Fold these 3 entries.
Entry 1:
Amino acid sequence: MNNLNQNLNNIRARLACACEKAGRNPAEIAILAVSKKHSVDRIKALNLMGQASFGENYVQEALSKMVQFQDEKIEWHFIGPLQSNKTREVASHFQWVQSVDRIKILNRLAAQRPENMPDLNICIQVNIDREPQKAGVMPEDVMEMARAAAALPRLRLRGLMTIPMATSAQHDPMDSYRPMQALYLELINNGLKLDTLSMGMSGDLEPAIMCGSTMIRIGTDLFGQRPE
């Protein structure tokens, strides 16, 4: 799993195959490289291969990496749990936040986004399987969150994100991804201008693409196992 070029080509091939089966265009789906705990050198290597979007879970780790990418064109996504005391740093340094699950966080990001930066792209994290240990908005509360996000200055609501229940003999990922797709389309049908459904990871990108994902978040199958 250390051959980054081969790993990236493998993911692109899986994406293309999944799109062919789903009757979709591969250009509709972005690959987000989940780079938490991985080195700057490996991020730079993937970036040189054409991978431009990277996802980080920890604010301080991400900031320490960003200072080493002053000239490279990288789009940074924050995808981890976001505490109130970290919103200013996230609002000032990231292009996307995919893990918003409270109106309080939305308000802080809007107030703290520098006026000289483009609007901050936002995805609302949905706890689609209602797992008590996971972050995310319950499905019935998503509309309220989405309308709040769409109304705030310096934010651009792009769509929804989910981390589904782990695949097992008892749980088919399609059982998570179908209701996510329905929720996403419901928001669009209610007038919200969305273009991003962030779902699908290394182990289940195919069912995610079948259910309308527009962004897959890939860590292990790109970088290999994370260092401890």
Note: The longest strand covers residues 155-162.
Entry 2:
Amino acid sequence: MRRLAVLITGLIAAQSCVLARIAAAVYTLELTQARAPEHVERGLRRTLNDARLTPTACYHAELAELLDWRGLLQGSRRVVLAVDESSHTDAYHLLRVSLPYWGGAVVLAWAVWEQNVAQPAGHYWAQMDQVLAQVAALLPPGLEVVVVADRAYDIAPFVDRLRARGWHWIIRAKVESSLRFRDARGHEHGLRALAHQHLPGPGSRWRTRGAVFKKAGWREASVVGVWAAGTQERLVVLTDLRPRWAVLRLYARRFWIEPGFRTDKSHGWQWERSQVQGVAHQARLLLAMAWASVLMLALGVAEAQRRLAHLAHRRARGPRPGRPRPEIGVLPC
């Protein structure tokens, strides 16, 4: 764990996954007894070789203790989880489940494998099952779970996995695809034609109940759609929940994970520049990145809460009497 702590601290200090930069930051901070940055870098490579550094051993138990479920749920028994995928250039593929939180997201579980390389039959769904199982082990009992996902997941095999766990789902539909919809009267339609009919332009919205996934033998689902003013296209989601507009507010939590992917790649850890080779090494680097992101999110939330408390205190005291003066700008709280 000490090795992992050094890697995480160096990653945060360097704001980069490039081992040479991490090594330089660790050396500057004097976190080890190494006599030169290149010696630190060799130690970091040994850390990435350490098979004991897994999410099960070094992340999940600690994360379960760190998460303030009472505060996160705020009296509700519902939790929203987001599933999405990303890639490291064209070399590695990342599947991840996150907990949307304060406009960002806490990474709960992930899997990584080589991109553009043929995998054994059933590999993808085996990885998905493993990640979902890890997430389920983190959740306290008695929660209503709602999984939100983008349009790549509007397929029966994914939905069936969530249904088997008793989890609800809200998934963006590929409106322009050949997806079929069966209405409450048993009439079958193309979802594309229905969406164009009921969402003709910005300012329109539509909701209904029926079934989708004809090739899989149909699954009951609601369709909730909107074409918001100022947007380029329709937003249509499929869900097992009732067809209410609130479904769209829940789905909006999915967008909270996008800053996390930007942090991974361009605005934070610069994952794609890491040049770390091998899936196993990448998995340990992702472990360090997950810890670094959790720590920075925690610090950011603490600072936001401090500023909000300060602002509330100032408002409670009311305006101070004094001579009028010109507006010269807004001071930070």
Note: The CA atoms of residues 80 and 123 lie 26 Å apart.
Entry 3:
Amino acid sequence: MNESTKRLKMVLERIEKACFDCGRAPEDVSLLAVSKRHPVEKIIGLNKLGVSAFGENHLQEALQKQRELPDLNLEWHFIGNVQSNKTRAIAENFQWVQSVDRHKILERLSAQRPAHLEPINVCLQVNIDLEPQKAGANPEEILQLAEHADGLDNIKLRGLMAIPKVTTDLMQQHESFRRVKVLFEMLKNEGYDIDTISMGMSSDLEAAISEGSNMVRIGTDLFGKRQS
């Protein structure tokens, strides 16, 4: 069993156990492999093992990988800070953007999405713990952002993404994730047809899944230590 197989097996086992512990079906939680600063060979290896969704947060690095992997049927998620001058390239080359937190970015992604492509899938990033150094909309702004997204032709609002405060305190992990789920349910109750709660990484996927995450973003535990 090679390294990629071992790592994937361990991650999938953690997801399965987390789901079992909270009474959920493992197939309800999807895996996003965060491949930033990892070579395309590792992406190819994981794809051969059945992983098809990959997340990148550095645009030029991601575009280069896409050019090197034209024959693989991969689903690309942009998960980094979305700057206005990068929206066109993101709109043209990604299926998902998980890190939208401003009206302007929604408008640019919609306007710049090529006509031959389906609407781009969007998660609104919420700064659930109001950390000043982190991107993401204030929780109080999420409903307005959702309303704006819903009115744009080339945006398909899928749900929420969050990166809570890093902590080893399990109660705090659960509390942050729980507040994201409350926001998600609020949007559902307002009539939005959303289906995605993207939260949980290598260090806290268990807490995230127990609080309702159905997409976990895993980098280190799948790929190992990143290249500098």
Note: The first helix runs from residue 3 to 21.
